[in-house]
């Protein structure tokens, strides 16, 4: 595999191999000198057509820790705002010698186009495309779950028997899609909980259970409760009941947090709408892995860049 476009493309062995390399990278992060010379001379371009905090800065940190040169490109303030096409942008990046392009784009499929169109030879990494996929987010989520379960002995493990409940705006969530494919490939059982208006057509063909009642889902005491951001920027008013009603029915508030099992963890990919899908008490509780997820994202993205660019191993 030359690119990372989707978790649906990953076999169980490939996914475990990425998580294991991420464990090696996390060991580097624990050192006093957090840098490896592995990608010296390589150029990684962060090509972001949509806003990002966590993904963009963690890809930048990951590339720098591997000694790659990093170019950050934001569509705002670039010639994209003058109408430049994806093709011309890609050919410009090819001309400056990009070895990897980490792309976030509002259109589902844009990374696939970049990988297949022949405009650029670089490895393409999907950093979130429309409502389609966000594979490195799912990998860092799986890494976080595996570490919570197995600690330093995580290497080689999948997520067999782990129960994961994903709650909220599934319809617009590339994080949910990537997690459904990856977590089930790794052996987890996934339940989705959402209002009917925030579930995609075709969800009945996904390898998941679907519930509409959060309290019924939480009574099953899942190992992991993953709350999703309400993506109001992608939402038509008709999809969304109202904030207070949503929070009452599908929000993880302090009362629901108290009813979780003592070993259950609470995840959120960020950015969070505190007080809407998750209370401040739940977000900041000892059961929350929100900041661990961010830290683990650097190790996982180091692993992905290393596997795609080092020439020693590939993702296949
Ligand atoms: N989780 C995530 O993708 O966050 P950003 O939008 O801040 O990158």
UniProtKB/TrEMBL annotation:
UniProt keyword list: Pyrimidine biosynthesis, Transferase
BP GO terms, sorted: 'de novo' pyrimidine nucleobase biosynthetic process; 'de novo' UMP biosynthetic process; amino acid metabolic process
Gene: pyrB
Protein purpose: Catalyzes the condensation of carbamoyl phosphate and aspartate to form carbamoyl aspartate and inorganic phosphate, the committed step in the de novo pyrimidine nucleotide biosynthesis pathway.
GO cellular component term, pick one: cytosol
Annotated L-aspartate binding sites: 82, 174, 229
Coiled-coil blocks: none
GO MF, one example: amino acid binding
Domain Aspartate/ornithine carbamoyltransferase Asp/Orn-binding: 160-308
Protein name: Aspartate carbamoyltransferase
Enzyme Commission no: 2.1.3.2
Residues annotated to bind carbamoyl phosphate: 54-55, 104, 134, 137, 270-271
Family named by the database record: Belongs to the aspartate/ornithine carbamoyltransferase superfamily. ATCase family.
Reaction equation(s) it catalyzes: carbamoyl phosphate + L-aspartate = N-carbamoyl-L-aspartate + phosphate + H(+)
InterPro entries in the cross-refs: Asp/Orn_carbamoyltranf_P-bd, Asp/Orn_carbamoylTrfase, Asp/Orn_carbamoylTrfase_sf, Asp_carbamoyltransf, Asp_carbamoyltransf_Asp/Orn-bd
Domain Aspartate/ornithine carbamoyltransferase carbamoyl-P binding: 2-146
Assembly notes: Heterododecamer (2C3:3R2) of six catalytic PyrB chains organized as two trimers (C3), and six regulatory PyrI chains organized as three dimers (R2).
Pathway: Pyrimidine metabolism; UMP biosynthesis via de novo pathway; (S)-dihydroorotate from bicarbonate: step 2/3
């Amino acid at each position: 595999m030359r690119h990372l476009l989707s978790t649906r493309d990953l076999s169980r062995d490939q996914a475990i191999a990425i998580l294991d390399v991420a464990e090696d990278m996390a060991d580097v992060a624990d050192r006093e000198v957090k840098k490896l010379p592995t990608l010296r001379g390589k150029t990684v371009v962060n090509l972001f057509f949509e806003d990002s905090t966590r993904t963009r800065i963690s890809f930048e940190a990951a590339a720098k820790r591997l000694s790659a040169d990093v170019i950050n490109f934001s569509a705002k303030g670039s010639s994209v705002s003058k109408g430049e096409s994806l093709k011309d942008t890609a050919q410009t990046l090819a001309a400056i010698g990009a070895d990897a392009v980490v792309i976030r784009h509002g259109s589902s499929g844009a990374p696939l186009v970049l990988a297949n169109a022949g405009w650029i030879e670089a490895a393409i990494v999907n950093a979130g495309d429309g409502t389609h996929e966000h594979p490195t987010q799912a990998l860092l989520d799986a890494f976080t779950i595996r570490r919570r379960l197995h600690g330093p002995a995580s290497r080689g493990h999948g997520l067999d028997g782990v129960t994961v409940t994903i709650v909220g705006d599934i319809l617009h969530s590339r994080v949910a899609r990537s997690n459904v494919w990856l977590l089930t490939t790794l052996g987890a059982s996934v339940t989705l909980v959402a209002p009917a208006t925030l579930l995609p057509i075709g969800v009945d063909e996904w390898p998941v259970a679907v519930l509409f009642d959060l309290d019924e889902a939480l009574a099953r005491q899942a190992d992991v409760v993953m709350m999703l951001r309400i993506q109001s920027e992608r939402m038509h008013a008709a999809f969304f009941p109202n904030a207070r009603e949503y929070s009452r029915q599908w929000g993880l508030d302090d009362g629901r947090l108290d009813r979780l099992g003592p070993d259950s963890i609470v995840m959120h990919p960020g950015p969070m709408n505190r007080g809407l899908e998750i209370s401040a008490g739940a977000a900041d509780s000892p059961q929350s892995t929100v900041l661990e997820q961010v830290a683990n994202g650097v190790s996982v993205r180091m692993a992905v860049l290393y596997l795609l660019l080092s020439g020693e191993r590939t993702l296949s």
